[in-house]
Amino acid sequence: MKPALLLNASYEPLSIVDWRKAVTLLWLGKAEVLVAQEREVHATHQSITLPSVLRLLRRVRIPRRRVHFSRNNIYRRDGYCCQYCGDRFNGADLTFDHVLPKSRGGDTSWTNIVTSCQPCNRRKNSRTPTEARMPLLTQPYEPRWWPFSAGAGNLEEHPEDWKPYLWT
Ligand SMILES: [Zn+2]
């Protein structure tokens, strides 16, 4: 049985739950089905449609979760595109660049690190984007947490009917 995507009452993705947990939430009247799966589960006198996406009826407050700061998550944030020339690369051909160079006091953080291809990284060297005349395509930022940012999961591997809810 396929797991379900659980959304908060505010529609933000909370977690992925197995079908038993999903059905329990529905039975308890704590959630509603937004998208149903094709298959049904037969209980004693009734059949239950399994949800593929369900939403809590009351918003739960969750502590702010942060995306793990890592090389791969930086590449993912930037869509595997060099933030100087805009070309797309494989992870192996990418590196990360300190926008304000480390030698000038730049820190290693979400807001000072961008994805860069190796030629752009060499060309920029220890200059700022302004000095190097290499404007950034997007300003670096800390990405918002969502259920798959924690793992290596690729969005393409998740059910088609989850997708509209993952980008909101
Ligand atoms: Zn480049």
From TrEMBL:
<feature type="domain" description="HNH nuclease">
    <location>
        <begin position="69"/>
        <end position="122"/>
    </location>
</feature>
<dbReference type="Pfam" id="PF14279">
    <property type="entry name" value="HNH_5"/>
</dbReference>
<keyword id="KW-0540">Nuclease</keyword>
<dbReference type="InterPro" id="IPR029471">
    <property type="entry name" value="HNH_5"/>
</dbReference>
<protein>
    <submittedName>
        <fullName>HNH endonuclease</fullName>
    </submittedName>
</protein>
<dbReference type="InterPro" id="IPR003615">
    <property type="entry name" value="HNH_nuc"/>
</dbReference>
<dbReference type="InterPro" id="IPR052892">
    <property type="entry name" value="NA-targeting_endonuclease"/>
</dbReference>
<dbReference type="GO" id="GO:0004519">
    <property type="term" value="F:endonuclease activity"/>
</dbReference>
<keyword id="KW-0378">Hydrolase</keyword>
<keyword id="KW-0255">Endonuclease</keyword>
